[in-house]
Structure formats: structure tokens, C-alpha cells
Design brief:
mainly alpha; two-stranded antiparallel ribbon; 55% helix; binds zinc ion
Length: 126
């Protein structure tokens, strides 16, 4: 019951999460928040800035991109039970496709290379 006396439904998982996250869960939550923040950092490179600012910010962008790219690997290095996720559906990935995205088996079939997709669409039309 909340302060107004109405019962608000929360799933057992959510309740547990808010009530007492373990230190490891709390630590993982902070790490996910870090990823979310740096992923959302978009630098408007067309804004007026000096050549020096532009150079520094584009370096920063490149470095942030590298951190994002290696995030799962780094999470594992930190002792988290992280897995590479499928680019399309978020399930654990099994391989890397021709575009360099981590993909699960199903999405690899669904969203294969352009060549593969062309073959599929050609088959659909014939
Ligand atoms: Zn998938």
C-alpha cells in the first residue's frame, strides 16, 4: 500500500529490485547507466566552434565510440556476467554478421547481408 492507501501492482522482480539490490546489481545498474549516458551523448559538430574545439570533440567522439564498442568485453573483464547481444532483438548473440553487428541465429537468417536479402526478395517476387 502506498501513502494514499491504494494498492499499486508491482511485479515481484521490480519490488525486489527497488527494495534491496545486491551490491553487484547496484554496481551493474550504475554501469548500464554509464552506457546509456555515453550512448546518448551526441555532439552537434555543425555548431560554431574553433578548429581546436572541433578536433578535441571529434577525438572524444571516437574514444567514446571505442568504449561503447568494447563495453561487453570490458564488463566481462570487470567480472560481470555480460554477453554480447543481438543487434536486432537483444537476445544473446551467437555470431557477427557481415555488417559487423552481433546477431542471433534467427536474425542472422532474417536480416542477412544485402546480397542474401536480395536473393530472398527475388524469390518472393518470382
Ligand atoms: Zn536476434
Amino acid at each position: 500500500m502506498n501513502s494514499t492507501g491504494r494498492l499499486i501492482y508491482t511485479s515481484p522482480d521490480r519490488r525486489g529490485y527497488h527494495a534491496s539490490p545486491s551490491p553487484k546489481q547496484e554496481s551493474w545498474r550504475k554501469r548500464v547507466n554509464l552506457l546509456w549516458r555515453i550512448k546518448g551523448m551526441i555532439i552537434p559538430m555543425n555548431a560554431p566552434m574553433t578548429k581546436e574545439e572541433k578536433e578535441k570533440l571529434s577525438q572524444a567522439q571516437t574514444l567514446i565510440g571505442e568504449v561503447i564498442k568494447d563495453f561487453t568485453k570490458s564488463s566481462i573483464a570487470l567480472g560481470f556476467n555480460a554477453v554480447n547481444r543481438c543487434y536486432y532483438c537483444g537476445k544473446p548473440a551467437v555470431t557477427i554478421d557481415s555488417r559487423g553487428h552481433y546477431v542471433c541465429e534467427k536474425c542472422k537468417r532474417l536480416y542477412g547481408t544485402e546480397q542474401e536479402i536480395k536473393i530472398i526478395s527475388d524469390n518472393l517476387m518470382s
